[in-house]
Amino acid sequence: LHDLLAAAAELRRRGIPFELDLVGGVEPGSQSGEAVLTSLRSAIHQLGLDGVVALRGFLPAAGVRSALAAAHLFVAPYVETASGDKDGIPTALLEAMSTGLAVVAARSGSIPEVVTDGHDGRLVAAGSPPELAAAIAGLLLSAADRARLGEAAARTVRARFDIAVCEPALAQRLRALVDAARRAALT
User: Fold this and answer.
1) Residue 121 near residue 102 (C-beta atoms within 8 A)
2) How would DSSP label each residue in 87-155?
């Protein structure tokens, strides 16, 4: 999120109007989570983003749907941590794409397996606030590009990740594994 805040500061320097809602929170009582939250609040203040960036915290499902419906763009600035921890295919990314939002995402984890740059979203180098800012700016300034990418994003999710597509494929794979195990047990 610090990369996203740095990108937001760059957008502000360029005079591009925006509001950034960060949805999600930390586990109550988590010392490390509270430290991250304190760090984010400090960065928001130091970068002069007070009043432009809102930390919304955890939202119920209806609140998330409302936030996505009000958004013009979804940004997924995920990175791989020093310990190697990374998101695979973030559910939040799929949810945003399914609503028809244009997305800007970092090339991290399995995100490039979902988002094709220029087709159904924009991909940027993980850990590159300047590249993130440029991609966000391009989409904030072009309603046509946002609409085109958002429509393609929704089609991608329906075609590849909808339960009607995934469940039969999973069931077929499970049947094949069970059948193979039965055959092996008989020999």
Assistant:
1) yes
2) -SS-HHHHHHHHTT--EEEES-TTGGGT--BTTTBEEE-TT-HHHHHHHHHHHHT-HHHHHHHHHHHHH
Using DSSP bridges, classify how beta strands 20-23 and 53-57 pair: parallel, antiparallel or unpaired.
Answer: parallel
- Pairwise CA distance, residues 148 & 119, whole Å: 8
Model confidence pLDDT, tens digit, residues 37-86: 999 999 999 999 999 999 999 999 999 999 999 999 999 998 876 776 66
Please state the φ and ψ torsions of residue 12, each to the nearest 5 degrees.
-65, -45
Q: Which neighbouring-strand residues pair with 106?
A: 124
H or E element that contains 74: strand 74-76
Q: Which residues contact 51 (CB under 8 A, 6 or more apart)?
A: none
- For 86, counting Cβ atoms within 10 Å of its Cβ (0-12 exposed, 13-18 middle, 19+ buried), the class is middle
Q: CA 20, CA 131: separation in Å to the nearest integer? A: 17
All residues at 6 or more sequence positions from 4 whose CB lies less than 8 Å from its CB, including other chains: 20, 22, 75, 77, 129, 132
Residue 21: helix, strand or coil by DSSP? strand
